[in-house]
Amino acid sequence: MFQAAHGTMQGECRPYPRQCRAVTGGPLNLLTSPRRRRFDMRLPPALISLRSSTAQVLGLILRSIEPLHLRARRFAYEIWARSQLKGTIAPGVQFIGSITSEGTGNVHIGRGTRVGRRTFFETYNDARIDIGEHVTLNDGITIVAYANVTISDHVMIGELTSIRDSNHGMLKKDFVHNQPHTAQAIYIGNDAWIGRGVLVGEGVCIHDGAVVGANSVVTKEVASYTIVVGAPAKPIGQRL
For 30-77, what is each residue's pLDDT tens digit? Predict the structure, then answer.
């Protein structure tokens, strides 16, 4: 029965002659057929060379004007950031992309700091966010202050990190969204390194030179030059 429907191993299948001819160079074998190879070679070698040379020249032109384009774009981002933030932005701050600010906008940024794309600042009442000098904020960082958030000098913070000095009430006597926030200040010391996707919670103090591994949840104090990882974050070593 199998041979009747599909033919023998060496013969063509009678019910499906077109499909079977593909095995011996039929229509479905066009990718490797001589006809397809001839089609690919229709462009003369001189034209192919001209096309490559033109692409190279245009690429060099675009590369030469790229610094001007980047400067103009970053200048536009800085104008937008200064319109959103009501604190002090020192000279030399680089805004790599657009930022978003909610609340009072009481955010202060020190000289030489780099602010990545899609950075989100949220401040309420008298709370403020203080960011020191030569800090690196990578893309997608969220900083929320209901009390105060202080980030000292020469700190590096990885993308998608969330720093929040507040928490939400969760007593079962009422709906969660009706319950008040609690807030305690966050402090991050000089030369600290916060990895990608970290959550720094209410009241946390991360001392000078500490390192927090990626995707950690920091709920307690981190000593100077200590390396912590995990959820919740725990010490695993020291910076040497």
Answer: 445 555 555 455 767 778 788 888 888 888 887 777 677 777 888 898
CA distance 208 to 187: 10
**Which strands, in side-by-side order, build the sheet including 114-115?**
94-95, 114-115, 136-137, 156-157, 193-194, 211-212, 226-229, 234-238
Q: Are 154 and 194 in contact (CB under 8 A)?
A: no
In the chain, the amino acid numbered 172 is K
* Distance of alpha carbon 230 from alpha carbon 194, whole angstroms: 13
Structure tokens at 182: 């609690």
Query: Are the C-beta atoms of residues 135 and 116 closer than 8 Å to each other?
Result: no
Question: Looking at the annotation, which residues are catalytic?
Answer: 154
The CB-side HSE value for 22 (13 A sphere, CA atoms) comes to 8
Fold category of 85-238 in CATH: UDP N-Acetylglucosamine Acyltransferase; domain 1 (2.160.10)
135-180 per-position pLDDT tens digit: 999 999 999 999 999 999 999 999 999 999 998 888 888 888 888 8
Q: Which two tokens stand for residue 152?
A: 């000292």
What are the domain boundaries of the chain?
21-69, 85-238
Measure CA of the first residue to CA of the last residue in the chain; give whole Å: 76
**The tokens 């390192």 sit on which residue?**
211
Between CA 10 and CA 8 the distance in angstroms is 5
Please, are residues 146 and 128 in contact by the beta-carbon 8 Å criterion? Answer: no
